Amino acid sequence: MVFLFYFLSAIMVISALLVVSTRSPINSVIYLIVCFITMAGHYILLNAQFLAVVQIIVYTGAIMVLFLFVIMLLNLNKITVPTKTSLTRIAALITGGLFFLVLIAATRLTFEIHPRYAFDSKIGLVSEVGKTLFGEFLLPFELSSVIFISSMVGAVMFGKKDK
Amino acid sequence: MSALIFTIVLGIILLYLGFVKNKAILAPVAIAGLMITLFLLFKDWGLGSKYFHDMIVFDNFSIAFNISMVIITILIFFFGIDYYEALEFHVAEHYALMIFALTGAFLMTSFSNLIMLFLGIEILSIPLYVLAGGKKYSYRSNEASFKYFMLGSFATTIFLFGVALVYGASATFYLPEIKIFISQFNGHLPPMMLVGLLFILIGVAFKVAVAPFHFWSPDVYEGAPTLVTAFMSTVVKTAGFAAFFRLLNMGLLPLPVPLEKALWVMTGLTLLIGNLAALKQTNFKRLLAYSSIAHSGFIMLAMLSQHNTSASVILYYTFVYSLATVPIFIIFILMKRAADGSEELSIFRGLYKQKPWIAVFLTILLMSMAGIPPTSGFMAKYQVFVLSISQGYLGISIVAILMAVIGIYYYFFVMREVFTEREQSYPIQVSKINAALIVVCGVAVVMLGIFVWNLPI
Fold it and tell me: Which of A76, A122, B88, B152 has its CA 20 to 30 A from that of B110?
């Protein structure tokens, strides 16, 4: 188990680094898919089957394929590194460095976490998630349909040709 | 709850009415539906009903804000009759999306659970991203939509991250339980909770365009269709502040010291940036965007001066501000048409010569925005200052009063243009409904200022 955890983590970190360091967008997307699949592996290690399946279906399946389509359709595969002035580079470096410092300071303090409830290994199973979703969280579940209908209406509005 | 369900059904009915060839029936149906919503809301007054494991609570606070938002939406729909006459396609979708946004606003005033707040913000925002791009073939409108979408999604993500961190620390989404959890620590919160709360506040502050999270607002206000801009600066702002107040009041008060300091700094910055940046604007919509940021500062001041009457003062302020904003946008559209599509301040030149009565009402409305007696805008600002001074926040109150005085200056820019003489290139044409709206809102703004000084909550 522990070996598997470190193995998955190593792949995840390496692929995540490659996402930002490769020059071609297509390679970036493919490394991102690898990163997401290893994340799904982590979910399975935590016995969260539902999250793992959703991770694969939604992120790797739907969103990443969409990314690939957009890159291919817009023909963005050429290696384009936008040139920036040295001023923006220095500004970006300072901002990023400061943010990094803040993050390190914050995580150093947050490592001690005392959970209020003991870990329940069954909590990530599909049946448990379903019971919670249709019991306590029924109203948010139903109301999220309004989000979907309005985004669908928006897609039709922008996509349809006006004759 | 019945009002919430009814508005969702109304939105779907409007979508189906899009199939009917005659688009003149859309606005009357929408307005009639909103009238019924208003009735349903009044029926729930005082009951304080809770639904679905206390996910939402329709107490008097939420019903009062809902009623004020429905009234403003009705006014905007009356404006829509004239505004959408020239538009040929997707009129039904525009109305339906605004109704859906209104349901999101209902959730934002009545949540008692962080999940519901998140859903409310999203249901409000996603139709707005679409509406901001309502003019499909206008470059500025596309820019507004895209900018709003990218920045808005980013803010929502930060908000959601904050919710996750708060849940991680306290193991609950329910606001009263979070309040109990916070009170256990006696001011020394665990860092995870503190960071989570900060992220939540950043997310909400973005939605109400409080500095330093205000950069999207002038660009989006300028690019979006004017009717949508009117909707954003009134209903959305009201919903955002209702949510902000409810979040603080139900869950987070008394605030941990670092967060309280951050919020005070944000208030001061909002007052300064909103008013000072407005001085340099030449585009009228941008001017109103900055003035709306400035108004956010005053509402923040009322919100942070925690007192029993804070909610009532915020309700009065947002309602009065919305009531003045809608007709100002109507007059702006009339002038824009007469000036062949220009949006500069100079389009108001010569208004008094051609249509003196509109000029008089515009002056009254701008006076209300600036806070000059006897209009209700003055009463609203006055109550905010009384509240903040009585709670002992003297320094920031003085800053706010100074900024209110500077605010008068840029509203007078517009008034000066109105009374300067010049020949219009086209005659100003006012439809009967728009004329009635301007008169009703103008009279209401004055009457509220003289007779009604606070709204029941």
Answer: B152
Across the interface, whether the CB atoms of A140 and B55 are under 8 A apart is answered yes
Q: Are B210 and B296 in contact (CB under 8 A)?
A: yes
Question: Can you give the pLDDT at residue A81?
Answer: 60
A104 touches chain B (CB under 8 A): no
Residues 6+ apart with CB under 8 A from B447: B376
Residues A3 and A71 in one domain: yes
Find the angle CA(B280)-CA(B151)-CA(A77) to the nearest 5 degrees.
120
Is any Cβ of chain B less than 8 angstroms from the Cβ of A140? yes
Same domain, yes or no, for A12 and A69? Answer: yes
Number of C-beta neighbours around residue B294 at 10 A: 26
The distance of Cα B272 from the centroid of its chain, to the nearest Å, equals 20
Q: Answer whether B118's CB lies under 8 Å from B163's CB.
A: yes
Domain membership of residue A87 (yes or no) is: no
**A80, A102, A135: which is the final residue of a domain?**
A80
Name the residue among B52, B122, B130 with its Cβ closest to that of A154: B130
Q: Is residue A162 part of a domain?
A: yes
A109 and B191 in contact by Cβ < 8 A?
Answer: yes
φ, ψ of residue A74 to 5 degrees: the values are: -85, 0
The confidence band for B137, taking pLDDT boundaries of 50, 70 and 90, is: confident
Task: Kindly determine whether residue B122 and residue A147, on different chains, have CB atoms separated by under 8 Å.
Answer: yes
Whether A66 and A137 map to the same domain: the answer is no
The pLDDT of residue B90 is 86
The CATH number for A55's domain is 1.20.120.1200
Examine residue A96 and state whether it is found in any structural domain, yes or no: no
Direct distance between the N- and C-terminal alpha carbons of chain A, in angstroms, rounded to an integer: 61
Residue of A nearest to B90 (CA): A157
Question: Which of residues A17, A49, A80 is at a domain's end?
Answer: A80
Residues of chain A contacting residue B56, judged by C-beta atoms under 8 Å apart: 139
Q: Which among B452, B321, B313, B292 is positioned nearest to B390, based on CA atoms?
A: B313
Closest-CA distance, A157 to chain B, in angstroms, reads 7
**Structure confidence by residue, pLDDT tens digits, B162-189:** 999 899 888 889 999 999 999 888 778 8
Confidence band of A113 (pLDDT split at 50, 70, 90) = low
Counted domains in chain A: 2
Same domain, A73 and A4: yes
Mean pLDDT confidence for B286-298: 94
Q: Is residue A31 part of a domain?
A: yes
Note down the domain range covering A125.
Answer: 121-163
Average the pLDDT over B43-50 and give the result.
87
CA separation (Å) from A62 to A34, A68, B98? 14, 10, 29
Can you give the pLDDT at residue B12?
Answer: 95
Give me chain B's average pLDDT, please: 91
